[in-house]
Every structure is written in structure tokens, then in C-alpha cells.
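Notes on consecutive records. When two proteins share a document, each keeps its own sequence and its own C-alpha cell line. Never mix them. Below: protein one.
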Amino acid sequence: MSLWRIIVKYREQCDPPKGAISPLIRTTSTYRELDFKTGDLCIIGELKGNYIRLDIINWDPPEEVPYDLDRNIENFKKYIGNEEYWYAHEEVEAMWLNSEGEHKEILQNIILLLASMVHYQMNRPESSRRLFMDSMKKLKERGLIQSEIEYSYPLRREYVLSLLSYLHKYSRYEKNEENKAEN
């Protein structure tokens, strides 16, 4: 049996249709996102209300984000700008899986920061705040965050710029390492 992942963006309240597998609802400042799996695409006809966007993804086998550092960083920028923190998390996770040492630790804390935003979107404010503060404290200790830490949703622009600055620096480091290995 094929399994499909359905992602629907709404401007108003949304509920999963009957038969949806593992439904999640994430709320951003401009839309609500319904994310679920199904074995029957006919379920799409049961979606209520007017939606902004509908994505259907074949879930056989489970998707993995490929490692392509430049593409991962570009996707990260796009996703974080659209408050699609789950997808930004996936892009950084691909980098994390291919890193080591200090960079692995920093990337792990970026993943936790993005997870804190997902927890907020899923109406889990306490765990969101805890993950946010823990990850930001560690990022500040590593010098990535210069300002005072202030919990916010969505991520403040200065935090996003700091993360992007680090990812570009990390990309240059990785390319230098590749060049050393080739020579």
C-alpha cells in the first residue's frame, strides 16, 4: 500500500478529515498548516474550507533531505522566512548528520531552536519557551548570538541573520576542508 503525506495550508481554523493518520496542526502568524498521512487520496475530497496550498508527497520510502550544503542553506532561508520551521529544521538536520565536533554541536542547537518554534506552532508554549531558552543560551555561549536573549515567535530578524551568518561561515569551512582533502 502506498502512503501519502498531505500538507494543507489554510487561512482559518482547520480540522483533519476522518481517517487521517498522525495529523498535526501548526499555526503561524499568517496561516494554519494541516499535515497528515493517508493511504487513500480520496480523503482530499473530504477537506473542508478554502485552502491556500495543498501538497501531496509520496511517502514510499520516507523522505530524506539530501545533503547539498548550498541547497540546504538556500532552502533554510526560504523556509525560515515563511515560518516553515519544521522544514528549516530538516535542512539543518541534513547538515548536522554530515558534521562533526563544534559544528555538530552548534547545528544541534539550531535544530533545537527551530524545534522550539514548531512547538509554539503546535500550541505547546511551555516546551517552546524551554527549548528556545536552552538552545539560545548555548548559541550565545558559542558567540552566535550577540544580543540579550528574548523569547519571541516568530524568530526575531536579528536571530535569523545570526543563524544565516553562521551557516554561510560553516559552508566556507566545509568547502575549505574538501579542498584540503583533494590536495
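Protein two starts on the next line and is unrelated to protein one.
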Amino acid sequence: MAGLLGGTLFGRLALHPSVTEITDATERGKVINTAWRRYGLINSLSLAAVVGAWLPARLDETSARNLSERELRLARAKDVMVGAVAVTGLASMVEGIRFSRSAPGGAVPLHDGDHVTASATPEQQRRKRRVNALGIASLAADIGLAATNAALAQESFRRPPARRLVSRLRK
């Protein structure tokens, strides 16, 4: 989760505004698109780790038979958040690649990391709006997953494994 959330926050809050220091608009596009292409590996591995770790856990240790009602509600919320992170992350990745390929070498003319210049084609403008919307949705999903995960962890601390076993044996 750290790779997904940290990368998105760094890109949006640090990288995107900083490229305004580059005077050439197409060079800004090359830098932004190169940076996101390179970070794509980290995002992909992070997404695979989040989904790959949750699915087996959900089938065994976090199955309904092992959880309290509150833990079960949080686990279901985490199911939704993991799905949202996966969908928005993959969609953002696909649209980011399409946007990057809309100019040779990713040199889409950018005002900053979030906005194309007036010289961008209508297709580039549409793609950048989509990338931005998906990026915001992905960030919201990442934050939601982090919050849900923290709440689930706190609830689990209140009911450690030994206590869960005792409560299952009583049933």
C-alpha cells in the first residue's frame, strides 16, 4: 500500500508542480511521462502485492467463520476497497500509457504535470482529463484502503487470535 499511496502523493504533490521549472512544454511532458513509466513497475508490483496478499487471507484467516460481526463488516469494506484500488489502478495505468503514447517519446505539451497546454491536441486534452480523474479516484481508493486496513488491524488487536479461538470453541 505504501508504494501505491506514496507514489501517487509524490507525483501529484511534488513532481507535477515541480516540472514548471522546465521551460519547454514538450520537455515537461517527456519528464512526467518518463517518471510515471518508470514508477509503473513499482505501482504494478504494489498492486499485485495488495491483491495477492488479501485474496488468500480472505479465503482463510479472514473468512466469516473466524471474525466477529465488526471484523466481518471491516473485512467486507476492505474487499470493496481492494477492488476499487485494483480497478482504478489498472484503469489509471492503461490510460496513462495511452496518454504518454499520444506524442513521440511522451512529449505531450504540458503546462504542469496536471494540465496540457493549449497546443495539445483535443485527444491529448481528453486523455489528460481522464488520467487526472482516474488518478484522483485511485488516490481516494488508496486512502480508503489504508484507513480500512488500519481499522481492521485495530479491531484485530482487540480480539487477538487466542481469544478468537476460544470464542469459536464456545459455538
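For the record: Residues 96 and 131 are 6 Å apart (CA to CA).
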